[in-house]
Amino acid sequence: MLTYTIRRLVLSIPTLLFISLGIFLLLELAPGDPMAQVPLTVPPEVKERMREALGLGEPTHVRFWKWLVQFFWIEPQVFIDHVLGTGFSEGKLRIISWQHRSPVMDVVVQRLPQTLWVVGTAYVVGVLIALPIGIYSAYRQYSIFDQAGTFITMIGYSIPPFFTGPLVIVVFSVQLGWFPFIYDTTHQVTDWDSFIVQLKQMIMPVMVLALQTTAQISRFMRASMLDNLNQDYVRTARAKGLSEAVVVMVHVLRNSMIPVVTVIALGMPAIFGGAIITEQVFSVNGIGAQLIGAIQANDLPTVHTITFIFAVLIVFANLTADILYGLLDPRIRYE
Amino acid sequence: MNETRAPQASSPSRSQWAEIWHQFKMHRGALLGAIIFVLIIGTVFIGPLLWTIDATYIDIRARNQSPGWTHPFGTDQLGRDTLARMMVGGQTSIAVGLTAMLLALSLGSVIGVLAGFFRRLDGPLMRLTDLFLSLPLLPLLLVMVLLFRESLSSIFGPESGIFILIVVAIGITSWMPTARIVRGDVLALKEREFVLAARSIGTTNLGLISRHILPNVLSPIMVSATLGIANAIITESALSFLGLGFPPDFPTWGRLLIDATVYLQDYPERVFWPGLAISLTVLSVNYLGDGLRDALDPRIRGR
Amino acid sequence: MNPKKIFAACALSLAIAPASAMAERGSDGQVNIIYWQAPSIMNPYLSGGTKELEAASLVIEPLARYDQDGNLTPWLAESVPTVANGGVSEDLMSITWKLKSGLLWSDGSPVTSTDVKFSWEYCTAEGGGCSQAEKYLDITDVETPDETTVVVRFAIPKPFPYNPFVGAQAPIIQKAQFENCMGAKAPECTDQNFYPIGTGPFAVTEFRPNDVITLEANDNYRDPSKPAFAKVLFKGGGDANAAARSVLETGEFDYAWNLQLAPDVLASMEAAGKGKVISAFGTSVERIMINFTDIDPALGDERGTIAHPHPFLTDINVRKALSMAIDRVLLTEIGYGPAGIPTCNVLPAPAIYASTANDACLTQDIAGANEILENAGWVKGADGVRAKDGVRLSILYQTSTNAVRQDYQALIKQWWSEIGVETELRNINASVFFGSDPGSPDTFQKFFADVEMYTNNFDGTDPESYMANWQCDQRPRPETQWQGNNMPRYCNDEYDKLSMSMASVGGLEERAAIARQLNDMLMQDYAMLPLTHRGRVAAHSNRLGGVVMNTWDSELWNVADWTRIE
Asked: Is the pLDDT of residue A125 over 90?
């Protein structure tokens, strides 16, 4: 297992380099113009000079190389400087956004809190609700609980956040006036009262996002449990006289976790990537909003950097899932 | 199941299918799902022959009408008949939803099974999956539209061209979770006793996959299928909304839902119809899938 | 076109501004402003986007601004120089500005003429990519004879010398702060670009790009009793719907910008009673551009160039019929409500420039359009589409993705079908459509469609450069990497000559006459079909006083006068 992990870790370096090249070429090929949002009143010659100032005149491979150096050499130095107070990165050019002309990583760091607060909480809440629902639905297949669960989760999944978002706003903000719906990113949690304020502004986006997660994961949990509940080993375990709780929660659950672990792992990087539509509906301005804004403004350095961080998280989340498979089911062997 | 049926089994495959059908019929949810699904498809495809108002016809004097005799589902902000738009929109949404889901599912299952079953393919295929998971969706779609729209339109005509483009776009951007899930299950399955037993009696790889592996990963595939349809219908609307899909006057359910969201407070019935249609379709497919899985599972069959 | 309506709208916005009692600086607490497209930088010279211009206008200011009626108002300058008061030289080659005395930057240092001169140097520095370079065109030198006097010298006579240092686009920045940020180094100066030192009523305390800006009252602001608010929270993000709702329905915010929403949606939100919707009209016109060139893909590189005239849109009868079939009044009512006025002119404002010669187009005339086509030999085929010599009237109609535009498309398609013209609709993502990527076939400049629809306007009040957009050499073509503003590829010698003559005519009346004539030429040639004169729409809370909507400059131009009404 250890050798497998190490081999995969080593292998992930060329993989990531390849992915980064893939993303870069894709962005190069995609139609778009960083000047698209500049008003039409600005004449074309001026726009051309603005493009040159962004470094767009340089050939593709030069720009890719610059990005690689900045991402893998200069940005880590900035991080070290920040932690240790050293001065390695002074005077070196970091990855600069085309929109706001400041380092991309600074904005990513700036936006992590609201992303983790809202999207992260929603994911945790969603998973925590989904697992018991899935387990109980399978254990009592076709009971009223199961039917109701299926009904609600499937409707929840078929109705997208661009609709549920405004719906909860109309109900809870406009009609009832319980919660604010414009997320205040400058709010600091310092004591109990400010925590309550934070909770109030989080509750609606978390609700909308958790609905999707719950629906998805509880379906996979239920299906996988159903597969296992009829296996011979379950009958054996019961015959041995093990209590029902032990049979279900230990034996069946453990064997049912493989697809669920996969789905949960696939969703983890998405926490960082944010939730584009929900963030927009509630003006959360997390990393998802940053990414979509950058795509619309054709801010390639930002898009490339964020998608690449995203790719790193995907590769490691999937690696974690693969290692977990081995722990859940020792029969799975990797060489 | 254990009854003495064996003597009649001169054509064993047929009796197996009959058995499956019998089991399927017994599953109330599945039957109900099937009926609703057929009803929806029937309404959407035959309905426009009976309800002959043109879905794109603008009757400006009749705009923003509530449901009534002339317009059973009401009209939109330009006076187009919502019932007609729901039916025409359903044709596209269901067609896109089903085909895109099938494409994603088959791609995902094939890649997942191959990666899980053949150790040598595992690395490359899963790294490919990682790559596809990392590619940003919107630029990818922009590139696809840029590269293929003109050529597809000239070969298949504008509407079928865009249909193919959208289905492929959704298909190749949503197969990855299925592949990862199927692979995970296959990894565990292929070490199980019955697989080892089958292998020891000389079953070929193909036989192993089709007879022993595939039937056992059916349930996550079914779940992916139901979730996939909902996803495809919504993604299509997002694509068209961004101007990467069907022409703007081409109604689809997702599109109707997006357009109606702004009018949530003033005309709530307008979001109701497309929301209901999408949910009903997804629910019916979900129950259908449940029944199908139970029917195909010999352990559950006859329980 | 009815110019009275513009005045009515302006007067209306004036009436909303009450003369509130003189308050103390910072006595009214915090004002919350929401811009659903969030500003990404506070330096308008590096962005050019409207949202950045407006955010920056809270902090940095020009020598003179346009007021709500489009009149020049002295801002940092003592008065507006004219030929009459001797501020503009007789030969129109120089203009002399005089700064108000005692002006201070927010850091306490004095504002001098060298700062003004520096703003010009900063924007014209090589490699800086200044987005407002056009404003400083043809300047040979900026002289600073003393601390408060600035003389701008031009290379050619400038009948309209009010481009440099005027309006939200060309504010004055502090030399001491930006000295080391010239040219290629401009983008690297993150601190300067996020926290500019200004003369305006507020100073930035925290800037988070594309998210939120917090500002506080400038201690050194020239009027000691202003601004009434101590703090500004300038929130970005979300969408127009949420922004409108937060002001009109929940009252979380005091001011929301650019609310392009269906008129009935806005009206029902306003009915909640927490705020008001305001609008005012500038020069924005939603128009359909007609393509005079053939866009057949088979033409390869010569696609969309004047070497190949369009098969049927070069027939003026067809263009005229297309225009007559459109009901502009209905379109505007559905799409914009009170925030739009149906128009037949591509140059609808200021009032002095607005022609009245084309107003007949306001009445839809399907029968007349059919008759014109019939007489011109376009005969309806079995499928209901007119054709002549094997050429069918089949049109590809493209625009950017936007709910109102898609409603316009659907309506116009139906009207055109009634005169036997078949229409295929296409909507394109705005970032691709308005981008100028020469590799993309879907840009509005390449215009690989028969007609396209979008809105354009011009800065300030002088239409000279705007009307020059339709000179023949402005047409986008492969040799210019498809850059240029003459989308229809309109080529008319007479138009070119008349348009160029504007550069040497000084009198306002004469210039207006030429502009009207240019507008009429375009209209009567049906090179483009103007549809709606669009206003800017904003909303403010009932608890916010002093808002005066201004489309000629930043909407936040008089933020120093805003107050809290309880």
From this structure: yes
Where do we find the tokens 């590799």? C439
- Smallest CA–CA distance, residue A99 to chain B, in Å, is 17
For residue A220, the distance in angstroms to the closest alpha carbon of chain C comes to 33
- B266 contact residues in C (CB cutoff 8 A): 264-265, 268
Class of residue C566 by CB neighbours under 10 A (exposed 0-12, middle 13-18, buried 19+) = exposed
Q: Is the dihedral of CA A27, A30, A35, A37 positive or negative?
A: negative
In this prediction, residues C365-393 reach a mean pLDDT of 91
Cβ-in-10-Å burial (0-12, 13-18, 19+) of B96 comes to buried
Number of alpha carbons in the 13 Å side-chain half-sphere of residue A54: 23
Contact B63, B77 (CB under 8 A): yes
Nearest by CB to A157, which of B131, B135, B282? B282
C264 and B77 in contact by Cβ < 8 A? yes
Q: Which chains touch B (3 or more CB pairs under 8 A)?
A: A, C
Supply A266's token pair. 């696939």
Q: Which of B161, B156, B149, B141 is nearest to C442 (CA)?
A: B149
Report how far residue B258's alpha carbon sits from residue B237's, in angstroms, rounded to the nearest whole number: 8
Q: Give the pLDDT band (50/70/90) at residue B95.
A: very high
Confidence at residue B62, expressed as pLDDT on a 0 to 100 scale: 79
What is the rounded distance in angstroms from the CA atom of residue C393 to the CA atom of residue C444? Answer: 22
ipTM reported for the complex surpasses 0.90: no
Residues of B near C (CB-CB distance < 8 A)? 56-58, 60, 63-64, 77-78, 80, 142, 146, 150, 154, 158, 241-244, 247-249, 259, 262-263, 265-266
Residue C511 has pLDDT above 70, yes or no: yes
Tell the CATH topology of A108-328: MetI-like fold (1.10.3720)
Q: Which amino acid, one-letter code, is at C227?
A: P
Confidence of residue C201 (pLDDT cuts 50, 70, 90): very high
Spatial separation of the C-alpha atoms in residues C130 and B287, rounded to whole Å: 61
CA distances from residue A276 to A296, B273, C240, C455 in whole angstroms, order as listed: 13, 25, 16, 28
DSSP states of A263-311 = HHHHHHHHHHH--HHHHHHTT---HHHHHHHHHHTT-HHHHHHHHHHHH
Do A256 and A168 contact (CB within 8 A), yes or no?
no
For residue C77, what are the β-bridge partners?
C99
Q: Cis omega before residue B220 (within 30°)? A: no
Arithmetic mean of pLDDT, C145-151: 92
CA distance linking residue A213 with residue C514, whole number of Å: 64
- The residues, ordered by sequence, that sit 6+ positions from A84 with a Cβ below 8 Å of its Cβ are none
Long-range contacts of A245-250 (CB under 8 A, 24+ apart): A248/A135, A248/A139, A249/A135
Mean pLDDT, residues B279-297 = 81
Q: Which two tokens stand for residue B22?
A: 């019998």
Q: Which of A9, A20, A155, A158 is the best residue to mutate to test the B interface, defined by the most B CB atoms within 10 Å of its own CB?
A: A158
**Interface residue A94 vs chain C (CB under 8 A):** no
A180 touches chain C (CB under 8 A): yes
Share of chain A above pLDDT 70, in %: 99
**Rounded alpha-carbon distances, angstroms, from residue A263 to A65, A218, B179, C135, C243:** 35, 11, 11, 56, 35
Find the range with the poorest average confidence among A163-167, A193-197, B161-165, B242-246: B242-246
For B172-207, b/e burial (b = at least 16 CB within 10 A) is bbbbbbbbbbbbbbbbbbbebeebeebeeeebeeee
- A323 Cβ contact partners less than 8 Å away, ≥ 6 residues apart: A1, A4, A5
Nearest CB to A182 within list C127, C252, C456: C252
- Residue C10 confidence (pLDDT) above 70: no
Cross-chain Cβ contact C435/A32 below 8 Å: yes
Specify which residues C424 forms β-bridges with.
C396
Q: Is C196 on the interface with A (CB under 8 A)?
A: no
